[in-house]
């Protein structure tokens, strides 16, 4: 029962008092009741009803004050809840049954833009899987969870929860605003890009390590076989081969360090190199490291570097690794003794 109905029923006691007094007075006029007993009964009944009415009004006033306090507390909590949502470091969207965005916290506005409040959510959230999950929740499903990749300046992967929140005030408060919806939909998004990237990198680690280490290891093994074979008594050749083997071994150590440092690999993919390197020394180093393979397949590596070649921006080890992989694949898959 609402406050207005309680107060209205309280005023119905006064007409009952008047009715009792009039009834007793009528009985007295008809001679059925003496005057003194009628007055005494009327006085007792009037006092009783007056006391009941007073107690009733006290209860009503207390209920009214309690309701006002509860509503005031609820209104005071609204700004606090908004501040809490604003401080959450994950996009949050509040949607009404008409698919309009009622509110969005700071991360959501950063992700989708500052003009989405008051507009249809599909104008800003265009991923079909998210919209499908929203449709299911709109039709009555309590919650829907999914993962979605959103493209922008940088691709990001989100774990998304779309949940339905029923509005209890819509069913219980008789004095609610007519525009208040029966339920809301909350879309919460958690960025899991780093976690998914780390999982992929862990899965690729063994394959990358075996691929990147195979070429320099093959070169070292080739030099060892040459030193134990044709160059066994050639001290000059052995000295030159040992220098190349040392450089290849050191490069493998650096390569292993890079492979073990997953964070550096991921960061370097988006970081522009700041150092400049000369390509000719790198090319000569690649040719020297692959000399055993070249001799085994009766092939040759010719390096032609124009005098006008400018230094390039990049990491020397990474450029060496790239050129060595390309040249090694060319030697491996070309016909033997091909020019």
Automatic annotation (TrEMBL):
SUPFAM superfamilies reported in the protein's UniProt record: ATPase domain of HSP90 chaperone/DNA topoisomerase II/histidine kinase, Homodimeric domain of signal transducing histidine kinase
Which keywords accompany this UniProt record? ATP-binding, Cell membrane, Kinase, Membrane, Nucleotide-binding, Phosphoprotein, Transferase, Transmembrane, Transmembrane helix, Two-component regulatory system
Show the GO MF annotations: ATP binding; phosphoprotein phosphatase activity; phosphorelay sensor kinase activity
Q: Name one GO biological process term.
A: cellular response to phosphate starvation
- Pfam families in the record: HisKA
Recorded GO CC terms: plasma membrane
Q: Which ranges carry the Histidine kinase domain?
A: 208-339
What is catalyzed by this enzyme? ATP + protein L-histidine = ADP + protein N-phospho-L-histidine
Q: Coiled-coil stretches, from where to where?
A: none
Q: Tell whether Repeat is among the UniProt keywords.
A: no
Top EC category: transferase
Intracellular or extracellular location(s): Cell membrane
Q: What is its main location?
A: membrane
Enzyme Commission number(s): 2.7.13.3
Where does the chain cross the membrane?
12-29, 35-52
Name by which UniProt lists this protein: histidine kinase
């Amino acid at each position: 029962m609402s406050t207005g109905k309680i107060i209205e029923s309280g005023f119905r006691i006064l007409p009952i008092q008047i009715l009792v007094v009039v009834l007793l007075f009528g009985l007295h006029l008809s001679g059925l009741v003496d005057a003194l007993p009628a007055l005494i009964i009327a006085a007792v009944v009037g006092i009783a009803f007056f006391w009941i009415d007073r107690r009733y009004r006290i209860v009503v006033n207390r209920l009214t004050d309690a309701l006002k306090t509860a509503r005031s507390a609820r209104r005071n909590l609204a700004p606090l809840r908004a501040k809490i949502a604003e401080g959450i470091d994950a996009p949050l969207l509040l949607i009404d049954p008409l698919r309009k965005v009622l509110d969005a916290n700071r991360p959501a506005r950063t992700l989708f833009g500052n003009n989405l409040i008051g507009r249809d959510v599909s104008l800003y959230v265009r991923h079909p899987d998210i919209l499908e999950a929203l449709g299911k929740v709109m039709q009555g499903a309590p919650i829907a969870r999914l993962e979605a990749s959103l493209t922008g300046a940088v691709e990001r992967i989100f774990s998304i929860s779309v949940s339905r929140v029923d509005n209890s005030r819509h069913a219980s408060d008789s004095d609610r605003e007519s525009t208040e919806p029966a339920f809301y939909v909350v879309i919460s998004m958690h960025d899991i890009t780093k976690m998914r990237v780390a999982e992929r990198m862990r899965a690729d680690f063994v394959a990358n390590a075996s691929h990147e280490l195979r070429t320099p290891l093959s070169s070292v093994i080739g030099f060892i076989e040459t030193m134990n074979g044709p160059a066994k008594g050639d001290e000059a050749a052995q000295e030159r081969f040992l220098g190349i083997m040392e450089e290849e071994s050191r490069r493998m150590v650096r390569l292993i360090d890079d492979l073990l440092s997953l964070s550096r690999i991921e960061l370097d993919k988006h970081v522009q190199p700041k150092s400049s390197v000369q390509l000719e020394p790198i090319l000569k180093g690649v040719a020297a490291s692959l000399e055993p393979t070249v001799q085994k397949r009766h092939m040759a590596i010719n390096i032609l570097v124009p005098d006008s070649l400018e230094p390039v921006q990049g990491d020397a080890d990474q450029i060496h690794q790239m050129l060595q992989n390309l040249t090694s694949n060319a030697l491996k898959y070309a016909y033997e003794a091909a020019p």
